[in-house]
Amino acid sequence: MFIFLDESFRKNLRTGNRFGALCGIAVSDESVRSLQAGVYAARRPYHENVLKPEHELRGKELLGKATFKCIEKKGYSYQFNLVEELLGFARTSGFAALGIVCFDPAFHTFACADEDSLDKTFQHLFRRIDRYAKRQHPGELVKLVFDDRDPATNRNNAKAITNYLVKSPVGRRYDSILSYPLFAVSQGHNYGLQLADVVTTVIAMRFQGNPHIDPLWRVVQRMFYRFQDGERKWTSLKVLRPPAKENTSCGLGPITG
After folding, report:
1. Suppose 5 and one of 21, 24, 106, 123 were both cysteines; which one would form an S-S bond, judging by CB atoms 3.0 to 4.6 Å apart?
2. At 228, which helix (H) or strand (E)?
3. 65-112 pLDDT tens trace
4. C-alpha–C-alpha distance, residues 71 and 96, integer Å
5. Residue 212 CA to chain centroid, in angstroms?
6. For residues 9 and 11, what is the distance between their CA atoms, to the nearest angstrom?
């Protein structure tokens, strides 16, 4: 199984608090080829109106201010429609959405400072990935594919992730996850990372408090994996909040398992 992951960094419109979203999609080994073909089929009718065949799908461009101004003026937007098509394909294909949204200023950049100590953002994320994989795709090895950042961040995160999954007693339990993360560029035709970018943008805009994102958010919500462990309910999206004195709930309800 492949987990394609991307980041989005924003400020909540109501509180001004900064946060980061590290989210993406889970795709089974047998579905990777159909992902490539399905994303191309969804975007192909928009090549003349929205983007060129060689152009990258970028959530912040497809769902920028111009898109919503166009909807307000004309009642529709090709960019918005394309995102609907992409998310519809992802949901009907059974791809799961997962990730972490972090409001804690100490950890919201998803950049590990210590190669021997994995940030708790990644720990929460890997816990959910491992549980999802073992329940839904038993026997498949999870390959983590991160969108490329700067070399120093890639190197530090890779070392911290590998050390955690190999050396840590807790990390060793997550034996469904390949201990060597992969880094790739989303440009060109890496449609796994591009689709992860779109999903991450929708999640980030929801926690930003953007009033226009609700129709797309409802689609992504249905892609979250939910299960119960004893009396505790879990979801594949973790929200990591700052100390209680800072209120960043955004009125989003109990998506905090």
Report:
1. 24
2. strand 226-229
3. 999 999 999 999 999 999 999 999 999 999 999 999 999 998 999 999
4. 28
5. 19
6. 7
> pLDDT tens-digit profile of 206-220?
999 999 999 999 999
- What residue has token string 């989303």? 186
Give the distance, in angstroms, between the CA of residue 219 and the centroid of all CA atoms in the same chain.
14
CATH 3.30.420 fits 2-240, yes or no: yes
Q: Which two tokens mark 134?
A: 């073992």
For residues 126 and 174, the answer to whether their CB atoms sit within 8 Å is yes
Count the alpha carbons within 13 Å of 44 in the hemisphere toward its beta carbon: 6
- CA gap 194, 22 in Å, rounded: 14
Longest distance between any two alpha carbons in the chain, whole Å: 57
How far is Cα 141 from Cα 174, in angstroms, rounded to an integer? 11
Tokens (6 digits) for 104: 């804690």
Which of 155, 162, 203, 141 is CA-nearest to residue 183? 155
Query: DSSP for 77-109?
Result: -HHHHHHHHHHHHHHHTTPEEEEEEE--TTTTT
Question: Which residues lie across from 9 on neighbouring strands?
Answer: 20
The amino acid at residue 218 is R
SS3 256: coil
